[in-house]
Amino acid sequence: MIVIEVFAPAGVLGPAQRQRLGERLIDALMGTEDAHAEAVMDSARALTQVLVHEPAAWITGDRRPVDPADPPRYLIRVGAPAAWRKEMSAHAIDRLTQALAETEAEAGRDPDRLRDQPHALVQVVGIAEGSLGMCGRPMGSLDLIQHMTAPHRDAIARLSTADLPPGTVIDPVCGMTVDLGTTDLTLEVDGTLHGFCNGQCRRIFADEHGVPLTA
After folding, report:
1. What is the pLDDT of residues 125-156, one digit of tens each?
2. Of these four, 101, 125, 160, 212, which has the most CB atoms within 10 Å of its CB?
3. In terms of DSSP bridges, do strands 2-7 and 48-53 run parallel, antiparallel, or are they unpaired?
4. CA–CA separation, 126 and 9 (whole Å)
5. pLDDT value at position 61?
6. Alpha-carbon distance 202 to 181, whole Å?
7. CA angle 88-90-92, nearest 5°?
8. Where are the alpha helices (DSSP H) in 10-81?
9. Does the predicted TM-score (pTM) go above 0.70?
10. What are the chain's domains?
């Protein structure tokens, strides 16, 4: 589960702009390159929420209120399981800044300033294991991946591999295509070599098949 909070000066974003920006931010964070199985991505989107805030006061470091006539400042705070933070930070900062820039361009403001000046701050905050709850109980990062992928495992197992590039396989947990030549995240089960996009998918698969992990 990921929560994206957007802080913007009052009046900068109208209702339609807030809705469009929220959709943009979710699409930007989920991405399209190297995507997991579509159904898994839909589950991830369903667990992603965007909240837009308009603070009553906005003071900058030079101790003056933000002037409504100035180009608007933004703060985006992304809360995600701590185990995901390091891997997702660079991607999130780049993509979310771009989503804001597209919104600025639509409003007739200079989108390039968001990369040239510190007008868009992005914080990726890792939530400690056991500190995120859903369905009335704590949910760790492994629990969330399990929740998002479990309903789709049978469909992932039936995905055709006929058109895959040589040396690649489909991650049996999330459906991502994995290059066996560039990863050591593999497991052999019943004579079949499986590859995984990250260690958590590998851990889930190993636990479900009773395979001990030595590394």
Report:
1. 999 998 999 999 999 999 999 999 999 999 99
2. 101
3. parallel
4. 25
5. 76
6. 16
7. 60
8. 15-30, 38-46
9. yes
10. 2-134 (3.30.429.10), 160-215 (no CATH)
